[in-house]
Amino acid sequence: MSYTNWSGSVSFTPGEIARPRNTSQVARLVKKARARDSTLRPVGSGHSSMPIFVTDGTVVSLERMSGLMAADADAGWARVRPGTGLRDLGEQLAQYGLAMENLGDVDYQSIAGAVSTGTHGSGMTLGNLSSTVIGGTLVNGLGEEVAFGVDASQGEQHDLLRAAQVSLGALGIFTSLTLRVEEAHHLHRQNWITHIDWVLENYAELVESNRSMDFYWYPRSDLAQIRMLNKPGEEPVLTPEGQPHSRLKTETVGPNYQIIPNDRHLPFEEMEYMLPFDQELTAFRQVRERIKAKHRAQVGWRVLVRTIAPDQAMLSNAQGRPTMTIALLQNTTLPYQEYFEDIEPIYWEFGGRPHWGKKHRLTAYELARLYPDWDGFRRIRRQLDPDSIFMNDYLHELLGEES
Ligand SMILES: Cc1cc2nc3c(=O)[nH]c(=O)nc-3n(C[C@H](O)[C@H](O)[C@H](O)COP(=O)(O)OP(=O)(O)OC[C@H]3O[C@@H](n4cnc5c(N)ncnc54)[C@H](O)[C@@H]3O)c2cc1C
Predict the structure, then answer these.
(1) Cβ within 8 Å of residue 171, ≥6 positions away
(2) Which fold, 186-354?
(3) Best mutation site among 102, 109, 177 for ligand 1, i.e. most ligand atoms within 8 A of its Cβ?
(4) Is the pLDDT of residue 183 over 90?
(5) With bands split at pLDDT 50, 70 and 90, how would you rate the model's confidence at 237?
(6) Taking the domains of the chain in order of start, what are their residue ranges?
(7) For ligand 1, what atom is nearest to the CA of residue 169?
């Protein structure tokens, strides 16, 4: 039986696909693989487009380990099973009067899969989903359950928590995650269409005055779609009204877990890098010039610019710096490789760190310079998985570990 990811760009045939129902079954799978000198790779919803889940051993799908386990509204935390889909999580948290702080563009991912690659939304004061992980449990490469963060009475600075928050399924298989959550709240979404020049002129004010703001730039028309999300009553007065081409495209109000995510049914490939925040949008301006000069005729989709608050996770691409992200999107039916590879060096010039779940070409040699805790993460990985049963060829190259 083969396994194929969401976009169709990663396809392989594992030895087996296992769907454990509880921690003991996960531990048994790990011990069995170890005894056979085989490997395992955990998967969530398969929305990543790098070969991080490839194995000829066992693919471990956590889809049967789903749902909210416990929540404390007063203390602001919730404990969830790893395979819980983000959409279900939103609905279940709402029953306790709680909500995630932020979400990405869609809610199809599992919580464990989403945090493992540092999935993020947009907002200068809103961290990625991994930064809301305050504890949890995982089954390590020896088949033992290991608790971390608040689940092990460790503080937020503890290295094991900071390693686990973004860990690419390389430390073990999460069997639960404890998340910092907020009081349930509504958001008011406004999507504006305007000219990119207006966004460039007003960007600093737009990111500063909105709880969450991002924009799409459409290379063929030079128009932009600005998406602003605020709590009702806290919206800034700033709008592009009255500017050439501007119009309010959509406006909705509702619970945050319904308002933030969008429906995406057309498969696409994406390359997204996280760069130090720059209100002048210097890197974006260079990307735009390059696309206009060389790729405009072939680019079917748009370029997305978002922001992320800094965090402390060892492999978070927003670690230690206010961050902006620039993503190239291209339909899977169109060529993307030459386009992505031509733009990628611009990101490198600005110290960009790639999204772990999206297309990029960096390996350990370059990545080690971008992450101050690179060696710390690798040390913890070796402690938790001494026989490297969670590694595959791609992760060996990515993390610079000998096979
Ligand atoms: C349509 C679409 C929209 C997207 N939107 C955004 C966005 O807005 N923002 C953003 O940042 N990203 C976005 N992404 C990327 C996506 O969020 C990430 O690739 C995410 O990791 C996918 O989650 P998943 O559940 O599909 O996990 P998978 O892709 O299946 O796995 C991701 C990683 O998690 C690991 N993993 C899964 N379960 C476990 C477990 N139980 N224990 C340990 N490791 C585990 C896997 O081994 C793998 O390394 C998008 C992708 C698509 C296709």
Answers:
(1) 138, 140, 163, 164, 380, 381, 384, 385, 390
(2) Vanillyl-alcohol Oxidase; Chain A, domain 3 (3.40.462)
(3) 109
(4) yes
(5) confident
(6) 186-354
(7) 44
